[in-house]
Structure formats: C-alpha cells, structure tokens
Hints:
2 domains, 8 helices
Amino acid sequence: xxxxxxxxxxxxxxxxxxxxxxxxxxxxxxxxxxxxxxxxxxxxxxxxxxxxxxxxxxxxxxxxxxxxxxxxxxxxxxxxxxxxxxxxxxxxxxxxxxxxxxxxxxxxxxxxxxxxxxxxxxxxxxxxxxxxxxxxxxxxxxxxxxxxxxxxxxxxxxxxxxxxxxxxxxxxxxxxxxxxxxxxxxxxxxxxxxxxxxxxxxxxxxxxxxxxxxxxxxxxxxxxxxxxxxxxxxxxxxxxxxxxxxxxxxxxxxxxxxxxxxxxxxxxxxxxxxxxxxxxxxxxxxxxxxxxxxxxxxxxxxxxxxxx
Length: 308
C-alpha cells in the first residue's frame, strides 16, 4: 500500500509541476506577445524568424544606400540646371558681341563676361557634396576632377560612375568627362567640350583688331556649339530625372520586401493572442484540478487506510 500511495503521490507532483510550467510559459508568452522567445521554443520557427530578420536588415541597408544615391542625384541634377542657365547667359552674351555697332572696348567687356561664365561653369563642374565627394567625379576622386591647365580644362577623375551597394544600379556620381567634355557634335567621332567652346569664342572675340567678319564667324560657331552642348546637357539632366523616378520605384520594392519580411517574422514568432488566452484558461483549469488531486493524495496515509 505504501508503494501505491508513493507512486500516486509522485505522479501527482509531476503532473502538478508540468501544468505549472505550462501555465507559466503561456503567461510569459501573453506578457511578451512572442510565441518563440528562444530557438529551443521552436527551432524551425526560430530559423524562419532569423532569415526574416536578415532580410529586414538588408532592406534597411538598401534604403540607406538609396537615400544616398537620391540625394546625390538630386544635387547633381540641380547643378546641371545651374549649368544650363549659365550656358544660356553665355549664348546671349555671344549674340550681343556680334552686334556690328559695338566698339572694341564694348566687345572686350562682353569677353570678360564670357570669362566669368566659364569660371562659374568650372565651379559647377567641380561641385562637391561637402563631404569630400564630387558629383561629377566619375568613379571617385579625392580632389576636384576638372583642372584648368594651360591648354584648357582637363578631367582628372576616373570616367564612369560610383555605384552604391543597394542591389540596384544606383549611382552617387555622374561621369564628368562625358557630361562636360564629350557632348556629341553630330559628326561621328567628334565631341564638344563646353570649355573649349568658350575658350575659342573668347579668343576669337578678344583678338586685337578683329574684323567684323571674324567676329560674325566666331559668334556663329560659338552659338552653334553652345546649342549643341546645351542639348546634351538637357539630355543628361533628363537622365538624372529618370534615375530619380526609378529610385522611387526601387524604394517601393524595398518597402514591399521589408513588409514581407516583417510579416514572415511575425508569423514565425508572434503569439496568436486569441488562441493563447484560450490555452491559458484551459491550463489554469487543469492546474486547479491538479492542485485538488494533490491535496487528496496528500491526505492518504496508513492511519486513514486502517480507519477506513
């Protein structure tokens, strides 16, 4: 009889402890809102949640890269807009210089205006983000990419673009050599540099004793070349605008991917609240029943058996 009573007692204690542990675990889940708090709770679900978390981290990194690319592209597009206004000013100055009634002194004053426009264009071409990166620095340079040498403006950057690690072909710089020095002229193999155009116009208009015919020729050539370059500049600006539109689409894909990862993680580790409350109530009922069973077994003794 002692063996039977002992076994009943041990089984009741084990059952009571098990129910208590289940109750405490469900109570903890209700408090945290998590079904899986550690890998041992559900190894498969924990692995799913870990993969989803990694995907969310990648999405955040891609978003930061996208924002860097967007900021750089917006600023480069703004620089191209400033350059376009300067080109228009240079064109108007050239046309004014072609006025045959102007004296040599008046024409030289316009030449100084062209020199000022050229200097401002060089400043735009070397525009920086303030953090050591140049918008037209190509694949990277730690110094201004355009240098005014004795033979004109030369490019010291690396042709191409600097791309960001975003899973997409998004750039933080433009190819400065192509943008400023290689505008298609319409003649195969011949390109136009805006600085060469202005240098030729300045030289043609500023020569001492230049004839009206030479002035007219310099103005015609300069205006035509500026128009060619301006069309190229507009195309480059349009490409920047297209890149910004594409970035908006990329941002939507990144956001969708992050939401999908968040949903997967939630599905793997979050608690079904309704089900958990139901389980908690059932476990509490079972625990109360186990307590009653324990109290009944605890009263069993040899004296109770004899007196019965």
